[in-house]
Amino acid sequence: MYRRRTNPILILITIFFTFFIVIFLLIPSGSNHAEKTVHSFYQYEQEGNFSSSWQLLHPTIQERFPISSYIQDRAHVFMGHFGTDSFEYTLENPNKVSNFQMNDEKTIDGYSIKVHQYYDSKYGQLTLTQNVIVSKVEKEWLIFWE
Question: Which member of 58, 85, 87, 110 lies 3.0 to 4.6 Å from 135 by CB, making a disulfide possible if both were Cys?
Fold first, then answer.
């Protein structure tokens, strides 16, 4: 009876590729984290939960819009002026950005994501398009507006 020999190199290569594929699938990339952050932000906004969406803003944006002003402005503009209580949105694919100029002093690295918001308002159907930058600050992914 003939017995087939297994090639140890082939076994090692198979184990290596299997390990690599499992690691690749289990560890989300930066662009996945960025996209999840943007989805969370706009889901909070859809719900009118502006205090939670504010928490996902970059500290520079939080300084520009204190939480009480942010909550009041968002509700006033979108719900008051547009006459709508919700919207739909879509995201384009994230694009990596390096050295994005935040202000006169600071640059950030992260991902740019174009967001399209669709409102069925008292003025008809409106589409609002905005680029957001998502960067990692310490251990959190946060949103910065261009």
Answer: 110
Q: Which has the closest alpha carbon to 31: 133, 139, 146?
A: 133
* Both tokens assigned to 143: 């949103």
Cα 139 to Cα 99: distance, rounded to the nearest angstrom: 19
Work out the number of other CB atoms within 10 angstroms of the CB of residue 119. 19
Burial class of residue 37, CB neighbours in 10 A (0-12, 13-18, 19+): buried
pTM: 0.77
Say how far apart CA 91 and CA 113 lie, in whole Å: 7
CATH top class, domain 30-145 = alpha beta
pLDDT digits (tens, 9 = 90+) for 68-105: 999 998 888 877 777 887 889 999 999 999 887 776 66
Closest CA to 60 of 105, 96, 110, 102: 102
Q: Would you place residue 1 in the very low, low, confident or very high pLDDT band (cuts 50, 70, 90)?
A: low
- Match 């944006």 to its residue by tokens: 61
Distance of CA 42 to the CA centre of its chain: 9
